[in-house]
Each structure stands twice: as structure tokens, then as C-alpha cells.
Design brief:
The protein has 623 residues and is α+β, with helices and mostly antiparallel strands. Helix content is 19%, strand content 33%. It binds 2-acetamido-2-deoxy-beta-D-glucopyranose (NAG) (7 copies). It is found in: Membrane.
Length: 623
């Protein structure tokens, strides 16, 4: 019995632990423009049907290069749909990712030009397409970046630069190790690696990780082939021996990478390779070695220096000494600032032997931009829908970053205190906007100016505007705002300019605004339905419309009452006179008395009726 329980406990423990070592990395692959899930040949890789895009048009694709996955569709983004377009993929687990975006070519004769555009990932500009990317066998048919995704989403945006419509063939978001490509100080703290190149030295053909039976935690990296450094400087060497230290955390380099290498033909001669790069950028360089040359059997037999643009980066590299054995992987990495357009890697033998190298990786180190405050992005999105912003505005991705491509009509500031961007200006004047101004525009807490002049916006001016204390300029002129000016605007103590002219506003202008006049603020309230109570505007009547009606009614009642009284008094007087005349002649006294009584009663009855009417309208008189 005890033993059974023990076994059950063990089994439970096994179940609890199993997922941690059996867990596959998160992988999301999207075939852009595809209506159904598809598989690409020859690896039978599954691709999701198209989703998570902000707009654009699905189309048929020509495959720009053999490197591109064999997919037939793409999504392209005409400028009429706005300059900024994105894929926003949600529910991405927090982690470290290899994000790869394949560019597309629309399969239509009218689209013969290759589009050039900018690509940003999580608000950071990572790549600008260079002309010639779609020429035969160019390796630049995708952009790849290694990035930490922390907020559960991956936002990939494509920014038009006026050279054709951005077109995207496919997207891959592949999880890699949390310490992958750890490079020391600054790692993971707002830095992104943009993969510039990967070479497998001595390989005949370019290959993906999947072709090299690599671990999926490696992110299915693409290794281009580099059969020679040129100028007969080297030859290929390869082995079938097992290589130690491969396919290991955190980078899971495939073993095959180290089974081929380039080795210099002349001892003493340098082995050098020059790569074209973007000037004045920081590059991270990863060099791979394994001693697979059978003529080397122990440490200190092959020693060389590694120079980057002439400066020694790694002195006295002894592969066997450093890796601990022959057929054992050695990876070296360093970061350099490259000022010119080229980066030359030189292996300089120091012990009279040949130099050898297995693979080269080059990354551009990009500083990640800080995104805009999420509450402000939400407020702008609601404004976008409340004003029915036309498609041409785009307004996709992040409003402020990349700094090269902010949303049109939005001005940003960087708040150093919280390391976030915020919105300090909205300029949407004369854009033919309709709709209304939502209350939560006040979430744009850093706003200093709003210009919505010359649109067809209607409804009330939200009183929450009065809580944006930094507001200096508010121009809502030439719209259809109605109702009254909210009292809260009087709280805007920095207000310099308030243009509300040409709207349908009425009622009293908040008295507190008068105080701003002393500070040189200017206001324009002309051409409205009826504003009052401000210098330059009519004085407001003290009474409300209700009160005016009340007074009117009460006056009528009083008038009727007075007339009635007068009539009664006159009638009574006539009766009395008549009675006196009759009495003076021959009629008995009693008869005259009866007449007199009846007249008095009638008069009383009348008075009573009128008094009640007056009492009913009484409250409005008081109001
Ligand atoms: C794409 O190609 C298919 C046939 O291959 C065709 O039926 C379809 O209309 C094309 N779509 C577009 C948008 O051109
Ligand atoms: C890269 O180099 C740094 C120091 O230059 C080192 O701390 C780090 O461990 C290296 N990364 C890997 C994965 O070897
Ligand atoms: C390159 O790195 C240096 C030192 O880390 C830094 O000061 C500089 O701003 C970086 N340059 C670029 C273009 O990222
Ligand atoms: C940042 O903080 C300082 C001091 O706390 C303050 O003076 C400054 O106004 C703040 N800046 C912004 C943009 O909020
Ligand atoms: C707002 O835009 C209108 C139209 O473009 C312009 O005439 C006006 O000067 C702007 N208002 C302010 C306060 O700058
Ligand atoms: C103000 O304009 C809105 C939208 O046109 C309308 O629904 C509302 O009745 C108007 N309010 C007043 C007080 O005129
Ligand atoms: C106020 O606005 C009206 C148009 O509605 C314009 O004619 C007038 O010049 C403006 N006044 C000032 C002082 O800007």
C-alpha cells in the first residue's frame, strides 16, 4: 500500500516536471494573404492563414528568391491605406524571440518595381530595404531580429517611403533561449540584434536550421554558404566526426556548422574577409571554430590573432586550448563600432601555422525605442474611431515610434522621468473629420495644443478637457460643437489661446477664463449660437428661460385678476346706485336687500376662482 502511494507520488512528480523539459518553443508562422493554413515545401513547414493585420490587400506572390518559403500569397499595403501598417500578434508568451519577415513581390505586371520600405519591430526601426533586394539569389529577402517580447504582443510595422507598396510574404515569430546570444553588459536592456549575415564557411549550399537537423530552440536560423574568402587564400576542409559542445543551451548551434571550415592555403598568410556594412553602427560579431584538421592533435599547435578592421579583438586564439579538445566547438563574440562602410575580419597566424574558421555571424546592435504610454495609445485609438479618421491616416502601430515615422497629426515628447513617449500635440485641422470628441481625450495628459479647426465635429465639448492642465492652445473653431462651454475649461491655468469661433455654442462663458486675459491669453468666441458674459460678448440675462416664462404667465394672471376686480367693483357700484334709485322711488326695502346680497355673493365667487388660478402659477412666479 505504501509502495503504491510512493509510486503514485513519483508519477505525479514526473508529470509535473515533464512539461519543463519537453516544452517546445513558441512558434507562430503566418502566410500573409493566405485564406487557409498551408504547408511549404520541401520541409513541410506549417503556416497559419493570414491574420492580425491592420489593413492592406491580399494578392498573389512571385517568390523573390530560393531562400523565401514556397508560399503563393502575400499582403500589400497601398499608400491610400495609410503610411503605417502592421501585424499585431497577440498572446505571445513573454520571452526572447527570433522575428523574421519575408518581403514579397506582387505577381502582377503593373507591380514590376520592387518596393522599398522601412520595417519596425515593437516600435524600433530595424531595417530599411535596399534597392536590388529582389534580384536573383539575393540573400536580403527577409529581415530578422532577436528581441525580447515582454507585453504579450508582437507589433511588426511596415512604413511607406514613397517607393512602391510594402508587400509581405510571410512572418515567423520563433522563441529562442532567454540567454541566447548573451553578450555581456547591456544585454536585454533595450537592445535588439538585427541579423545582418550568417555564413557557414566552406558550405556548398545555404541552409536553414531545419536542413541541418538543428534544435528548434535555435530559431531555425538561415546560414548562407561561404565556399571561399576568395583570391585562392583558402580551401575547404570537412569531417564526419562528432563535434562536442554543439546543440547546447543557450544558442543550440547545429553540429553540421562545425563539420566544415575554411583553412588558409599558405601558412603565415592572413585569412581575411571583408563585409559591407552600414557606417557608424555598432555590430556584434560571433565567430565559430572547431579543430577538425587531423594534423592538429593538441593545444598550442595552431595559434592566431583575430583582428577587426585592423584592431586585435582576440589575441592568441588557440582553438584546442580554449575549447578543451579537438572536434570541439569554440564561439567568440565581441562588439565593435564600425565607422566606415566595411568590416574586415582578419585571422593572423602567429605560430607559423594556418588559420581556420567554421562560421561567422554578424548582428547590428540596435537600441530599442521606448514605446508610447499605453493609456495614451488607447485614447488615440478611441479618438480615431470617434472622429472616423480616414484610412489614409493609417494610425497603426505606435504613435511616436519609430521616431522616423510618427502618426500624422500627432506630436510627441519623450518623458525622461518614465522613459516613455507621450502625446503633446494634436493637429487635425481641415481634415474633413466628422463625429464627436470622446470624453477620454483627457487621457492624453501631456497635451499642450489641440487644433481641430475646420472640420465637421459636433456634440458637446467634453468637460474632461479641463483636466489636461498642460493645455496651452485649444482651437476647435469652425466646427459644429453645441451646448455650452464647460465650466472646467476655466481650470486650464496655462491656456494661451482658445478659439471656439464658428460653432453652435451658447450660454455663459466660464468666468474663470477672464483671469487668463490678464496673462495675455487670447480668445475667439464669435459666430456662435449665443455666448454671453465675457468681454466683447453681450451680458447674460440674469434669468433663465423658465423664469422668463413664469414671469410672463404670472403677469397675465395678475392682469386678468385686476380687470375682474374692476368689473365687479363697477357692477356692484351700479347695483347699489340702482337700488338707491329704486328705494328712493317706491320699492320695498327688503327686495333691494336681496338683490344686493346676491351680487355680493357672485363677486366673492369670482374672486375665489381667480385666486386659485393665481396660486397654481405661483411657483413659477417664485422660480
Ligand atoms: C491569384 O491566382 C489565382 C489562380 O492562381 C487566381 O484565381 C486569383 O484570382 C489570383 N488572385 C489575385 C488577387 O490576383
Ligand atoms: C560573449 O562575450 C562576452 C564577453 O565578451 C561573454 O561574457 C559572453 O559569455 C559571451 N557569450 C557567449 C554566449 O559566449
Ligand atoms: C555604439 O556603442 C557605443 C558604446 O556602447 C555607444 O556610445 C554608441 O552610442 C553606440 N552607437 C550606435 C550607433 O548605436
Ligand atoms: C521630471 O521630473 C522632474 C523632477 O521630478 C520634473 O521637474 C519634470 O517636470 C519632470 N518631467 C516631465 C516631462 O514630467
Ligand atoms: C489651427 O489650424 C488652422 C487651419 O489650419 C489655422 O488657421 C490656425 O491658425 C490654427 N490654430 C492655431 C491656434 O494655431
Ligand atoms: C448637439 O449636437 C448633437 C449632434 O449633432 C445632437 O445630437 C444634440 O441634440 C445637440 N444638442 C443640443 C443641445 O443642441
Ligand atoms: C474670430 O473668428 C472670426 C471668424 O469666426 C474672425 O473673423 C475674427 O477675425 C476672429 N477674431 C480674432 C480676434 O482673431
Amino acid at each position: 500500500m505504501v509502495r503504491v502511494r510512493y509510486l503514485l507520488l513519483l508519477y505525479a512528480l514526473f508529470l509535473a516536471c515533464k512539461p519543463s523539459f519537453a516544452r517546445a518553443p513558441y512558434a507562430m508562422r503566418i502566410s500573409c494573404g493566405a485564406r487557409d493554413d498551408v504547408h511549404s515545401t520541401p520541409t513541410n513547414t506549417p503556416w497559419n492563414k493570414d491574420f492580425a493585420y491592420t489593413g492592406g490587400i491580399p494578392g498573389n506572390a512571385t517568390r523573390p528568391s530560393f531562400i523565401s518559403p514556397s508560399l503563393n500569397t502575400l499582403r500589400y499595403f497601398p499608400l491610400s491605406e495609410g503610411p503605417e501598417n502592421c501585424y499585431n500578434i497577440n498572446r505571445v508568451p513573454r520571452g526572447h524571440y527570433l522575428v523574421r519577415i519575408y518581403f514579397g513581390l506582387v505577381a502582377e505586371p503593373s507591380f514590376d518595381n520592387e518596393p522599398l520600405f522601412d520595417v519596425s519591430i515593437e516600435g524600433t526601426l530595424v531595417y530599411s530595404l535596399q534597392s536590388g533586394w529582389s534580384t536573383q539569389d539575393n540573400e536580403r529577402v527577409f529581415v530578422e531580429a532577436l528581441i525580447f517580447l515582454k507585453d504579450g504582443t508582437a507589433s511588426l510595422c511596415f512604413h511607406s517611403t514613397g517607393h512602391g507598396d510594402p508587400a509581405i510574404l510571410a512572418i515567423e515569430i520563433l522563441q529562442i533561449g532567454n540567454r541566447a546570444y548573451y553578450f555581456g553588459k547591456g544585454y536585454g536592456q533595450g537592445t535588439i540584434f538585427r541579423t545582418d549575415r550568417r555564413f557557414n564557411c566552406g558550405a556548398e549550399k545555404p541552409k536553414f536550421g531545419a536542413d541541418l537537423s538543428a534544435d528548434s530552440w535555435g530559431g531555425d536560423r538561415f546560414w548562407n554558404s561561404l565556399p571561399t574568402f576568395g583570391q585562392n587564400s583558402d580551401r575547404v576542409i570537412s569531417t564526419d566526426n562528432k563535434i562536442k559542445g554543439t546543440s547546447q543551451s543557450p544558442n543550440f548551434y547545429p553540429e553540421a556548422l562545425y563539420q566544415t571550415a575554411l583553412i588558409s592555403t599558405n601558412s603565415q598568410a592572413d585569412l581575411a574577409y571583408t563585409i559591407e556594412v552600414e557606417p557608424t553602427r555598432n555590430y556584434s560579431i560571433w565567430l565559430h571554430f572547431a579543430e577538425i584538421d587531423p594534423s592538429i592533435t593538441k593545444a598550442n599547435q595552431r595559434v592566431f590573432d583575430i583582428l577587426l578592421n585592423g584592431d586585435v579583438a582576440f589575441p592568441d586564439v588557440d582553438i584546442v586550448g580554449m575549447a578543451g579538445d579537438i572536434n570541439s566547438a569554440l564561439v567568440l563574440n565581441t562588439t565593435v563600432v564600425v565607422s566606415g562602410r566595411t568590416l574586415t575580419i582578419t585571422l593572423h597566424p602567429t605560430k607559423g601555422t594556418h588559420a581556420i574558421i567554421s562560421a561567422i555571424e554578424l548582428f547590428e546592435l540596435v537600441l530599442a525605442e521606448s514605446k508610447t504610454l499605453p493609456a495614451e495609445i488607447r485614447a488615440l485609438r478611441r479618438l480615431k474611431s470617434a472622429l472616423g479618421l480616414p484610412l489614409r491616416f493609417g494610425w497603426n502601430g505606435d504613435p511616436c515610434v519609430p521616431e522616423q515615422h510618427p502618426w500624422s497629426g500627432v506630436d510627441c515628447l519623450y518623458d525622461r522621468n518614465i522613459s516613455k513617449h507621450a502625446i503633446d500635440g494634436l493637429g487635425l485641422d481641415n481634415q474633413g473629420l466628422r463625429g464627436f470628441l470622446p470624453d477620454d481625450i483627457s487621457q492624453l495628459r501631456h497635451l499642450q495644443s489641440i487644433n481641430l479647426s475646420g472640420n465637421s465635429i459636433s456634440g458637446f465639448i467634453p468637460s474632461s478637457l479641463g483636466t489636461i492642465i498642460s493645455m496651452e492652445i485649444l482651437d476647435l473653431s469652425f466646427n459644429f460643437f453645441n451646448g455650452s462651454i464647460p465650466e472646467s475649461l476655466g481650470q486650464l491655468t496655462s491656456l494661451q489661446r482658445l478659439n471656439l469661433n464658428s460653432n453652435s455654442l451658447k450660454g455663459k462663458v466660464p468666468a474663470a477664463l477672464g483671469g487668463r486675459l490678464l496673462h495675455g491669453a487670447s480668445f475667439n468666441f464669435t459666430d456662435n449660437a449665443g455666448l454671453c458674459g465675457f468681454p466683447g460678448l453681450p451680458a447674460c440675462g440674469r434669468l433663465s428661460i423658465g423664469a422668463k416664462i413664469g414671469i410672463g404667465l404670472s403677469s397675465c394672471v395678475a392682469f386678468v385678476l385686476i380687470v375682474t376686480c374692476f368689473v365687479c367693483w363697477w357692477k356692484r357700484r351700479q347695483s347699489v346706485l340702482r337700488a338707491q334709485r329704486i328705494a328712493a322711488r317706491d320699492a320695498p326695502y327688503a327686495k333691494a336687500r336681496t338683490h344686493f346680497n346676491r351680487d355680493v355673493q357672485m363677486t366673492r365667487h369670482h374672486n375665489h376662482e381667480h385666486a386659485r388660478t393665481a396660486a397654481e402659477s405661483g411657483p413659477s412666479l417664485l422660480a
